[in-house]
Design a protein that fits this description.
This is YgjP-like metallopeptidase domain-containing protein. It holds the Pfam family YgjP-like. It comes from Candidatus Desulfosporosinus infrequens. InterPro entries: UTP_pyrophosphatase-like, YgjP-like_metallopeptidase. With about 210 residues, this protein is an alpha/beta fold. It has a domain of about 110 residues: Zincin-like. The chain is built from six helices and seven strands. The strands form two sheets. It has a four-stranded mixed sheet, covered by helices on one side. Strands 5-7-6 form a three-stranded mixed sheet, covered by helices on one side. β1 and β2 form a beta hairpin. α3 crosses α4, α4 packs across α5 and α4 packs across α6. The longest helix is centred in the middle third of the chain and has 35 residues.
Amino acid sequence: MVAPVSMDDNEIILLVEKKRNWIFEKFETFQRLAQIKVERELISGEKLLFRGEDYPLKIIDVEGRIPSVNLKDGQLWVSINRDVPSEKRREIVRKKLEQWYKSKAKELIYERLALFTDKIGVKVNTVRFKNQKTRWGSCSQRGNLNFNWKLVMAPTDIVDYVVVHELCHFIQMNHSKEFWQLVGNQIPDHNERRKWLKENGVKLIL
């Protein structure tokens, strides 16, 4: 904790006691996050998230074929040319998976935008998909939207929350009471979905 120099020891002790539950809650959260891998190994058997479900990764060697990704039989299959040197395989697998996830993210988010733009009464200009570390979505007053393609790893109801959140900013470019009322009109349990994203967003990695 950081405290102003002007605070005496008794004030600091009282403040810590008052915030005790919050401090322990944050400490437990940081401990949990520290145990989560920040980078995938991308080897067969490793589980990857897609639309809220875990799918085992299955990497198969093929003869002279362009690398491809398919979801079948409950697994994420990545085919890769068997002649690719071992030191390059992981990066090629990552790139192909990223391309696949991006394409699926576009399909899903365009679908959800079509559902909610009419309900909220707004129009979208352009939509871009980015690889961002700390933001799931953003918007501009010109009607442009940016989404983190890793959102497609989350359950659809979480994607809906982010989509609605950004669309409501077209009406209220702030986080005022009026803004949250707009969000709540479409997603009454938005607080729970927001909490899920805060607690689990770190798991949406490739």
